[in-house]
Structures are given as C-alpha cells and as structure tokens.
Amino acid sequence: MQKIDPTKAIEIRPGVWWLGWPDYDAGFSNNPYLILEGEEAILIDPGSRLEEHWSWVRKKIESVIPIEKITTVIVHHQDPDLCAAIPLIEEIVGVDNFDIITSERTALFIPYYGVRTQVTAITDGDRLEIGENGRYLQFITTPYLHFPGAFVTYDSKEKILFSSDIFAGFSVNWSLFADEYYVEAIKTFSQPYFPAKRHVLNFLNKIANLEIDLICPQHGSIIPKEKIPAAIETLRNLEVGIWK
User: Fold this and answer.
1) In this structure, what CATH number is given to the domain that contains residue 24?
2) Regarding predicted confidence, which is higher, 73 or 133?
3) 242 in any annotated domain
4) Is residue 1 part of a domain?
5) pLDDT tens-digit profile of 153-179?
6) What is the DSSP annotation of 195-234?
7) Domain span holding position 32
8) Count of H helices and E strands in the chain?
9) What pLDDT is attached to residue 79?
10) Cα–Cα–Cα angle for 144, 145, 146, nearest 5°?
C-alpha cells in the first residue's frame, strides 16, 4: 500500500478527497470527505468544532478549494463529531449560502449546534443529481445504525459507499486503507454500538445490489474493493448489542 501523509488531503478517487484526522491515542480517527463535480463542492460529515480537529479539516479543504466554494454539506446523523463544525462553515461561507442535507430526524437536531442555514431532509432512496453527466448521490436510510435517522450515501460515478458509522472501526494502529486486521476493528466498534441484528441485516439487504468499489466510513479506515467481501461477512456475523 502506498505510504500516505495524514497531514495532507488525500485524493482517494478522481475528485474525491479524504480530509480526516487520525487519533492514534484514542483509536478514534475521523473521516470527513469532499466531492468535487463541476461547480459543486460537497462536504460529507465535516466533523468536530474542537480547534485540534477543525484546524485539520479546514487546512485540508483549503489545500483543495477555498471554503467559500462549498455548495453542500451532507451529515449522516446528528452526533457532534459529524455536525458541530457546521457553524464554523457558516462563518466563512455565510448563512443559507450552501445546502445542508440530512434525514428528517437529524434535521430536528442540527439547529441545536447553532446552525442557522435551512436544512433539507431526505427520505430513503432520494437522489441528488450533481454535475452534468448523470452522476448522482443516492441516500439510503439505515435506521438504528446507530441512530433512528441514520443514513448512508452512494456515489454512482465512483461507486463509493460513504457508510457513516457502518464499517467504522476503533484502532490505535490506524492506516488510511484497511489492512487484513481491520475486520477486528469493525467488531470492536459495532458490537456494542448497534442495538439489534435485524437492523444490520436490513442494511446489508439494501446495499446487496449496489456495485461498490470503495467503502468510506466516518471512523477508522477506508475499505478497498478486495476487502469489502470480508467486511460485509464480518458485519453479517456480528453479535451486536453487546456492552461489557
């Protein structure tokens, strides 16, 4: 695997950038992403407002585009490690000068971070057309993984599943791309976090017919195509709802 510099924005597919920050001490790395398509700049799960986190993300965005160019922010659920930075984006881009896309349930919580921009709520199967060549982002609801209003996003062009907390991992031995041990990191994250097996199976059924070349979770490591089958089987066979 090519050695990467985690202090830099990494182009993981043409026009798709990893903007994350590794946390080797906590084993809780966070992964915002940026998609550029024509005049559109889509920021996915921008993250925490803590200075040590936001400074990473801001620097990486600015190494690719001016922050003022952001047109859309997608947040997959309401937790502060995804949403809390949105007011900092508003300070730069301006209120209502970009779109915020999330689920209906999550939309109820976003204003509690001090967000003033209007939020657009999606439902299962909704699509956002981007660019002029038929590319779209498809939104797939994933209830109770881990939040009732959680969802994931599928990029039709690059065949990327932005999977939020699903396929996420805890690991102090972080690497940008998953290695052969990453399935254990998935278990460590998911077993206590997901409440019931039926919700996991419901999600796997929803994505069964998607052509996926890359899975990009919000925590942990990016899963390349050759490791996706093992990651799916790990999730399928988990005993979830465990807290010791």
Assistant:
1) 3.60.15.10
2) 73
3) no
4) no
5) 999 999 999 999 999 998 778 889 999
6) --HHHHHHHHHHHTT---SEEEESBS-BEEGGGHHHHHHH
7) 10-236
8) 7, 13
9) 93
10) 80
